[in-house]
């Protein structure tokens, strides 16, 4: 892999915390930044209007307070020597006529009794795989490493299982079950920060298709959407504009991260998704890395994903 020799991009409104991560991503080997368009969402208070054409961008940082009823708390120093835990639970459900299995990562020193509320990242697996896929790709071990090194704040990662991943998406109840059954259960049984600024949804391949559909259909629940090698479900590209236009003011669309390997056979669909977001002035980041549509590609970028989600979500909050 080699670094791009030239980077040319425009920013009409520079995002505060998120722009730091974009700058970091520009220096990743084999990574090319495609675009970052549009007006920044109101929740993140843009501070500068500019057009940049440079090889070494200068980051802009501002303070963000997405949850005014709580205050951010740092990770206790003693927790930096510990690791997180993964629990597999099965929750009852009616919409899918069966229980839903969840793999839940909690960060070092997590305690439901500590009055610390964590942001939650929902990560969805690909077709024919299970809730174990993201853990096998290294998401939990990467989270441990990044949290204990102090590179990202601690967060909870929920990996739901879609048992019927070969079914038609338009007839599946997986998406609505995640919203109506899984999220409320997690917020009830774990110490989560349950406001929009504290919740992200992402996935790879079919899981990324679900992340886009669910995230844009329920924009009041998610501040961030991650679409990793996700060509979108059939017909969803034509629905994007309606989903965006249905978001009531002054709420903005979730921020969207799109990435894929340059050898991915379906990358044209992902490029079209980015172009649609361009036309709708939705803040997003579209990145092409070296690689294919396979486990080697996703495992190579798990840490990149976690850095982006963590930078886009609220830090742990302590109840006042």
Q: What is the fold's blueprint, element by element?
A:
Layout lengths: L16 H10 L4 E5 L34 E3 L12 E7 L8 E7 L9 E2 L2 E5 L8 H5 L1 H10 L7 E5 L13 H16 L9 E6 L1 H12 L6 E5 L11 H6 L9 E7 L5 H13 L4 E6 L5 H18 L4 E3 L1
Parallel strand pairs: 6-7, 6-8, 8-9, 9-10, 10-11
Antiparallel strand pairs: 1-11, 2-12, 3-4, 4-7, 5-12
Can you offer a commentary on this structure?
The chain is α/β, with parallel strands linked by helices and 320 residues long. It has a single domain, classed as Rossmann fold (3-Layer(aba) Sandwich). It contains 8 helices and 12 strands. It has helices at residues 17-26, 133-137, 139-148, 174-189, 206-217, 240-245, 267-279, 295-312, and strands spanning 31-35, 70-72, 85-91, 100-106, 116-117, 120-124, 156-160, 199-204, 224-228, 255-261, 284-289, 317-319. The strands form 2 sheets. The chain has a 9-stranded mixed beta sheet with strand order 1-11-10-9-8-6-7-4-3, sandwiched between helices. Strand 9, helix 6 and strand 10 (255-261) form a beta-alpha-beta unit. Helix 3 crosses helix 8. The longest helix has 18 residues, at 295-312. Mean pLDDT is 80; it is low at 1-73.
Which keywords apply here?
single chain; 320 residues; alpha/beta; Rossmann fold; 9-stranded mixed sheet; 3-stranded antiparallel sheet; 19% strand; globular
